Amino acid sequence: MIRTAWRALLVGLGIVGTLAMAAGAAPPPVKPDRLAVVFPPWWSRAHVTAAAASAGDIVGAGSAPFILILRGDGAGLDARSRRAGALLLLDPAAAGVCAPPVQEPRS
Q1: What is the pTM of this model?
Q2: Cα–Cα distances in Å, from 97 out to 6, 45, 94?
Q3: Using CA atoms, how far apart are residues 22 and 70, in angstroms rounded to an integer?
Q4: Per-block average pLDDT, block size 10, for the chain (107 residues)?
Q5: Which residues fall within 8 angstroms of residue 72, CB to CB, at 6 or more apart?
Q6: Is 39:67 a contact under the CB 8 Å cutoff?
Q7: Nearest-angstrom CA–CA distance, 83 and 106
Q8: CA proximity to 37, closest of 103, 92, 94, 83
């Protein structure tokens, strides 16, 4: 029982450490009105979707169920995403496999 708890703690610390390193190395988004948003991987798909929708318009999904591409008012999209629980904000183009190309309607 104690070994399982220690393993879970180590895995959790590994995830948090990896996200912290990625946040430090990630380039800032080129367009502040469009973000690849990484939510906690332990959240359910419904929780991630609800949190993302509260921050902006969902225009795509990443390769993992906890990564979504959002579009919204550039002045506050990043702050709303963080308040909604985002762990990491990336430029969708720099996110690589996390953010496959999204077909947006032409204006």
Answers
A1: 0.66
A2: 31, 19, 9
A3: 19
A4: 73 65 59 85 93 94 88 87 91 61 54
A5: 33, 55, 56, 57, 80
A6: yes
A7: 30
A8: 92
Q: How high is the mean pLDDT of the chain?
A: 78
Residue 32 contacts by C-beta under 8 Å, 6 or more apart in sequence?
74, 75, 77, 78
* Dihedral class, residue 77 (left if φ above 0, else alpha if ψ from -120 to 50, else beta): alpha
Tokens 């929780």 belong to 47
Q: For residue range 58-88, what is the model confidence (pLDDT) as tens digits? A: 998 887 889 999 998 878 898 999 999 999 8
Q: Say how many CA atoms lie within 13 Å of 16 toward its Cβ.
A: 6
- What are the structure tokens assigned to 74, written together? 């550039």
